[in-house]
Write a structure and sequence with these properties.
By secondary structure, the chain is of the alpha/beta class. It has nine helices and eight strands. The chain folds into two domains: 3-154, 3-Layer(aba) Sandwich (Rossmann fold), CATH 3.40.50; 159-248, Rossmann fold (3-Layer(aba) Sandwich). The longest helix is centred in the N-terminal third of the chain and has 25 residues, at 3-27. The mean pLDDT is 92.
Length: 249
């Protein structure tokens, strides 16, 4: 996600949350943990460090937006207390930070935390605690499961739908393409790859000449690029997060 798109997405999510909280705050006087007549306490978890740190701009943008809301009087007189922690895009650390936000900081909800693996790690916990895991910053298909996880709500466009759009473009404009795919070896990468293959349909098996996966713990993807370059691929489909996208380019 380019930095500008990240900022716009963060602002849109923050605006949507502000509107929802404003309606709720004016509708009732009985509050859950994390809300009062003077404050709405919102938790957030972002990769300010680690392999996905480029996405940290989203948390900084949301923090700035909520400061603006507070400077203008808050939401029906309530100031937003935005508490954002770093998980370095590491699921075990995400669990630690979620527990801190829920059990120590006692937030009303966790808002727009980033990443498919990190959010997957805390989904069952958040639902067991009945604390909203709201507008998660990932487009995985798994967030649309209100029956099993009613306290989790997605935000971004569906990864599989996005990938199918690319696939349709390939079929229309490059029907004879030989495609090399690089993808992140987690729910994010696999979800996106599935959508791409679904979009290509029966032609996918002949069009994709190599699939390479990488781990976010790898310092470089050079070896994967070399391997893909050794094929006769003429199209590169790059399913990566910012650090590895930059390396691939």
């Amino acid at each position: 996600m380019p930095a500008m798109h990240a900022r716009l997405g963060a602002l849109a999510a923050a605006l949507a949350l502000t509107a929802a909280l404003s309606t709720a705050a004016s509708a009732q006087k009985k509050y859950d943990t994390g809300a009062s007549d003077t404050e709405i306490k919102i938790g957030n978890i972002m990769p300010y460090s680690g392999p996905a740190s480029a996405y940290g701009v989203i948390g900084k943008t949301e923090e700035a937006f909520f400061r603006k809301i507070n400077a203008e009087g808050g939401i029906n007189g309530r100031k937003i207390n935005f508490i954002s922690y770093d998980d370095a895009y590491s699921p075990p650390k995400t669990v630690e930070q979620a527990r801190k936000l829920v059990e120590s900081d006692e937030v009303l909800l966790i808002f727009n935390s980033l990443g498919t693996p990190p959010n997957s790690a805390i989904q069952k916990y958040m639902n067991s605690k009945k604390v909203p895991q709201l507008f998660v910053a990932t487009g995985a298909t798994k967030w649309n499961d209100p029956k099993e996880f009613p306290w989790t709500m997605g935000w971004q466009p569906n990864y599989q739908s996005e990938a199918q759009i690319y696939a349709k473009y390939m079929l229309k404009n490059h029907p004879d393409a030989k495609i090399a795919v690089l993808y992140q070896n987690d729910d994010y990468g696999k979800d996106y790859l599935k959508g791409f293959k679904d979009g290509l349909g029966a032609k996918g098996s002949s069009m994709i000449v190599i699939e390479e996966s990488y781990e976010v713990s790898e310092p470089t993807i050079d070896s994967h690029i070399v391997k893909m370059k050794s094929t006769d691929a003429d199209v590169f489909f790059n399913i990566t997060t910012p650090k590895f996208a930059a390396q691939a380019i």
